Batch of 3 targets.
Target 1
Amino acid sequence: MEENVLKKFNTAKFLSFALGFFGLQFAWQMRIILSGPVTENLGASPFLFGLIWLAGPFTGMVVQPLIGALSDKTTSPFGRRRPYLLGGALLSALALWALPNSELITNFISSTLHIKLPALAALCFAAVMIWILDACVNIAQGPYRALVPDVVPQEQHSIANSYISLAIGLGSVVAAGTAPFLKWAFNYQMSINAQFIMAALAFSLGMIWTCIAIKERRYQPKEEEKSEKFNFIKSLKEFFALSPEVGKICWMQFFTWIGNMCMMIYFTQYCIHTVFGVPDLSGVSEVIKSSYDSAVLAGTNFSSICFAIFNLVCFIVAIPIGVLSVKYGNKKVHIISMLSMALAFLGMAFFTSNVKVVALLMAISGIGWASICALPFAMLSQYIKPGTEGSVMGIFNIFIAGPQVFVCTLVSWIINKCSFSTAGGVNYHWEYTFLIGAVCLITASVIASRVKDKKV
């Protein structure tokens, strides 16, 4: 029993705990920034690009609840959560290597088997790699969030989630900033392949460190738990029966993630096509594509810089947000943070040609991102019953993944319909995504104002 008593974490323990999430976010950030240029180069239109992004929400809605429930009942010598953390990281590393090499791999398969593959074979292979990558990230992410109530005392949950937010910010800064920094400091342009390999190493090595450094409590399920099978409907009913406030938190999270993913999914395309004025290149010849290479590279690097700034702010304010939430309550801090992000989104919808303004508005958005990564989970963790952490966090992820289906389908369809002609060809109003995102974040703030904070 003494072994199972939760001891308070110090700073070094929190940092070791968060390092795996640093690697997870490093990989995820690379997928956010570079999947657009990779798939567009292989022939993906805006709507098709949105459909490929469905990998994230669909795997999130299916994989996380299932893996979360399985991890609740796992009794391996290695622990309940750590097998999923490590397995997800290593499988993701393989997908990260294969994604930018999709055309090379499909050409190799075609020449080896002496078969002629369809023109879009490389794009289909890339889409499959994205689906595998997203599934593996979800395999690791759900049990990781469940590890907080497993090993951290309840009074430190907000701080623990803030350290995860800090890791998300720092991982994204390093992922997004490395290539632009090397270009600026040494005039060396890091290839897309090299950036994906860097992400694979960061994810696997970071997760290995956390799995070694964090010791889980011994868990021995009761006899009735051993024979009990996972029942999603039953788990869903039990989830909403935790408290009336849980439903409000879920609706808040639903609208938050519609708003947030409007930026996450489309920001790189917004930079390339709206800020830098590159027309759509999905259906043009290689000669025309090559004439825009420098502009696409400039837009991609600018996107990376903005994401680095965005996540640097997240990194800086992550711990202060956790401290302020302890003092003033999770709800108040979260509402203010989300409203600041909504105002920044409105600015990006109208100030599309000024790169300095766009970068500044992305910095302001980082405040909301730091809060989104921490406080909703801290609000929910107050109602979790011991032994159900993985299942609860998996079901909660439905309200993160589900909204992305809306963003990947309806929002991408709206962009696809809002085309206009330029001197260089057809382009799209990518900035409309920020208008939709701002409205959803404001709606989430209104819902959050109705949530009652539970005192710990």
Target 2
Amino acid sequence: MTPKKILLFTFLSLFILLLLSIVFPPDGIKITDSFTLKFITIEDIINPPKQAETDISEIINGTDIQDETDTLAFVEEKKKENIDSVMVDSQYIYYKPMPVKIDSVVRYIEFPDNTRSSLDNFFKILANIKNEGRIIRIMHYGDSQIETDRITDYFRYKLQTQFGGSGPGIVPAVKAFNFKSPMIQSVSGNWKRYTVYGRRDTTVKHRRYGMLGNFARFSPLVNDTLPDSLKTYNQEELMPHKLMNYASINISQSPYSFKPTKQFKRCRMFYGYNTSEVKIKTYADEQLIDESTLPPSDDYKIKTWNFETTPQNIRFEFEAEDSPDIYGFSLEGYSGINVDNIAMRGSGGLFFTRMDLNMLSRMYAQLNVKLLILQFGGNTVPNVRENYNYYRKAFSRQLRTLKRIAPDVTIMVIGLADMSKKEGDTYVSYPNIPLIRDALKQASFENNCAYWDMYEAMGGENSMPSWVFYDPPLGEKDFTHFTPRGARYIAKMFYNAFMFEYNRYLRKKK
């Protein structure tokens, strides 16, 4: 093709594109309910749209995380090693004696009435924790926003350094994803994890999912997955073992955890509903410390191990004809506060009513749960509606149910964060976020629960792009989740708001 023809072709193409930009509908052509074909307009070319952002400088500058300087240096060092950005934590302690000095409270906790008393029952226990002589437990349920211990880690660390306590709390038998915080876990054998949220597994004919909303079981090993002790057997010698199932769970300390999280003196395993005996060998730092046989059970049970010093690694080896349901392991001290991180990717928080409530009630009592924090709403955003009354009613039902089965447990709700979708070349907030926020808040107030508005705390509408484009970034490029640094800001804002109310409670009592 000659240069003249190339030039002619280029001009012709540009002319056709110009015509299309003139005649194409400004709102685009709707192909499906979720897809609309749009074309750039002349106005977009002359005056390209600018990214709408919220000024968050006052929020960030007012929420001092500089007392965690070593933490942030640790974060940056690990990010250079190509570690997943949501897996980062710290191993340092920064202690402030009570009463806590509030650096900045960007967003206060909201209450259903002027008495501001929804958290008082828990604050009363907190104020007397030195006399309790046992663990006070907080369970932090949430969606993917709290995966890898994000937000929970800082809240746990600050409470444990102020009020005592150690350990990460409850960790599942099998993690859904290979995150390395608050503990590193691995398994061998054929394990399967069952959850009360997400797509229902029709092979599960009961509702006994336990306090984490999930349990795990191991099934028979086959071929080369047999343990080394059986590989040398011939076929006849192996016959008696054909019905036996072998599996193991390994739990070790994580470099991405705060120091109090790494310290524990006790491990409790929650398990049950095995139809045959279960042989279990327990190793601490490769030393066999216990060899037990768990009898058949038609209920859930608790097996406890105590340690003189915190092991770096614990391994459990199982052998059984029928696997028990394993609900999780609690790594803890003997007193103070435990804060459990219970992340449920994809959940809207509407699962409690699908669980065995008698079992859940007993577990809460045995664990001495005194505060439930529910942080949901984000997974409802993509399903854009004009009205979220259905979500308000459904979430309110969860709160009523929890209050009925655990009347001594205080409940508070953390709302969803800002989330953005791309429109043309810019990112804008989903229009339904305030509606979902209001539904969560109304459900909370209907059940006398406190509410903390994370959406407004981070800046409100169009604030997520500001967090994503901040230097260094505070939001991930999915415009939904926080980076480790961003999660630290959110966690500190929530902690400050929480301690503000606690100090207000102490002043009121005086």
Target 3
Amino acid sequence: MKLKNKITKILISGIIFFGIIFLVTGKFTPLKSTSAHHDEFNIIPLDTKDMPFTFNDLAPLKPDYPTDEKGVILYGQQYYHPVEVAQMGLQFLDSFNKTSNQEYLNRSELHAQKLLEKKVESKDAFYFPYEFDFAIHGNKNTMIKAPWYSGMAQGEALSLFTRLYKVTGKKEYQEAAKKTFQSFLYPRGENQPWTVFVDDNGFYWIEEYAGKGEDPVQVLNGYIFGLYGVYDYYLLNKDPASKEVLEKSLATLRHYLPEFRSPGNISFYDLKYKRRSESYHKTHIAQLKMLYKMTGDDYFKTMADNFYNDHH
């Protein structure tokens, strides 16, 4: 009986200790994807001008695209497309960084606020829903039904919130970044909605088209755009959880990139339908070059060269 009481006291003490750690640091978050394959990478902090989501042109203050009454970009005249909203927020923020024009920052925050207004919270994570059906590759037989979610949108929203926090210091964006990053910790089956999963070979994936009951499409460009957000978040706080997700994401690419390559031809957009797109092939090459800059890993440079030599 005394032994039982002693064990109980030890367990209670442990719970209290870790509870205190959580309250003090806010970092006692279980990484749900611990079963995924993990390689170590050197993560290189890039200068702002060399980061993903920097743009050659300034964002249009008089947009030539559909917007709502406040100026937030619309898709199809009526819907909010999370990737488009996040991208416009990032472009306005990049324009602010280049010009210090307050109007650009105001527009960036306007788009960030729209994402937060539309968010869905599940467990301790923010998700940004697509509220319209979408035919993947324009094929009605591949229609994904609303609401659905996207790891690409999660990553780009994460980049936007992280960068806005760096620029403004507003705690709201720090908390939004934290909650958005949490979505990368819950693979499919451990949360609904979902945007990441671990495949049968034990590799971690960021899924662009994540719907209820849908099989993963495994889109390369969307995967990497999602990964960029984790990179942004890691540079913000250098916490172990974001480094782990980032390295597991890079490990998956190192393993699967040959399956997206089509020697002597345009690379595959995805692994489910094996569609090819010349424009996305160019995107793949640019993304692989960016991964090389972010890691210094020669493998990504070699694959960028291979994709380029296959078709350019």
